[in-house]
Amino acid sequence: MGIFFSISRMEWVGIIMAIGLVWVAESFNTAIEFLADEVTQEKRELIGKAKDVAACGVLFASLIALLVGIAIFWPYLVSF
Predict the structure, then answer these.
(1) Helix count (H) and strand count (E) of the chain?
(2) Which own/partner contact pairs does 50-57 have at CB distance under 8 Å and 24+ positions apart?
(3) Taking 90 as the threshold, does the pLDDT of residue 80 lie above it?
């Protein structure tokens, strides 16, 4: 969509940073899950909570990326 609408350089920076934020959050989430699974495979309450919090971080990063995408592309879509 960025190429189609010829978004500005600063808008590209926002899109790339939003994508990067999600990738970084997902990387931390995966690392926490691997580490927790290495410690124990049995169900442990605190490990489950740690995994949930890490997954929540990915969700928040994704929602922020969605808001950035809406903020950048909404004006282009409305005028299209």
Answers:
(1) 3, 0
(2) 54/28, 54/29, 55/29, 57/25, 57/28, 57/29
(3) no
Q: Could you report the per-residue pLDDT of 2-39, keeping only the tens digit for each?
A: 999 999 999 999 999 999 999 999 999 999 999 999 99
Predicted TM-score of the model (pTM): 0.88
What are the φ and ψ backbone dihedral angles of 4, each rounded to 5 degrees? Answer: -60, -45
pLDDT value at position 41? 86
Residues 29/55, Cβ–Cβ less than 8 Å: yes
Q: What b/e sequence results for 41-62 when a residue is b if at least 16 CB atoms lie within 10 Å of its CB, and e otherwise?
A: eeeeeebeeeeeebeebbeebe
Can you tell me the distance from the alpha carbon of 62 to that of 37, in angstroms, rounded to the nearest whole number? 24
